[in-house]
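I have been asked to look over a protein record a colleague put together. What it holds is a sequence and that sequence's fold in token form. Please read both lines and tell me whether the tokens look consistent with the sequence. I do not need a full report, just your reasoning and any doubts. This is what I was given:
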Amino acid sequence: MSANLARLNATIVAHEQLKTKFSTFKDQAEKKFQFLYNENKLLKAKNSHLKLQQKDADKRL
């Protein structure tokens, strides 16, 4: 096997490994983004609820 062919094969293997790592990273990033998006929605809902409770408490004073 020639040196050029060996380098080409090594490059192909490295490329495939990078594709796999990128795909894994992309999947993890998408899951984290979805988690943070849902957590943000929950916190906004809690914030709205607390604001309503505060308004109600202010009215009673």
